[in-house]
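Q: Got a minute? One more chain.
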Amino acid sequence: MKRLFYSILSISLLLISCNSGTKNVQNNEKALIEAEVPESTDANNTNGGIPIKINSNEFIEKVHDFKSTTTWKYKGTLPCIVDFYADWCRPCKMMDPLLEKLAKEYDGKIIIYKINIDENKDIAQAFEINSIPFFLFCPVDGQAQATMGMMSEEQMRQAIKDVLKK
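A: Always. Here it is, folded:
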């Protein structure tokens, strides 16, 4: 009977230690993923050549106050692209390398923001985002233009050129 008890105890301890190791690996992977996308910086500065992860409150500060006004008014001094995405969205992940490439190429000319719609449901509802990826192209003056779904590099470059002209 003692042998059975110690066997069960040993197996339980082994399972508990394996499970906690898995959580640490998952937490470390999550930390690495979050480290790849920096938190917000001042919208008046460049983005350092990388997309910037922001939340709804930062969107209100830096892009547009969607809670207080229905009239579009961009708050930034540089045009921006806002990428609405989710961590589980494969097409969103497929767009990431292109967005990183364009952020480097257009550093100082355009800012690329990323908003996780699972973490910021209020903004997803406000913009009636039903499908992702969803991109909002914001010129300094004039109306923002929205598009949903994956875009080719050529399409994305053309949209950036259009935003820079305004």
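A: The longest strand covers residues 80-85.
Q: Perfect, thanks.
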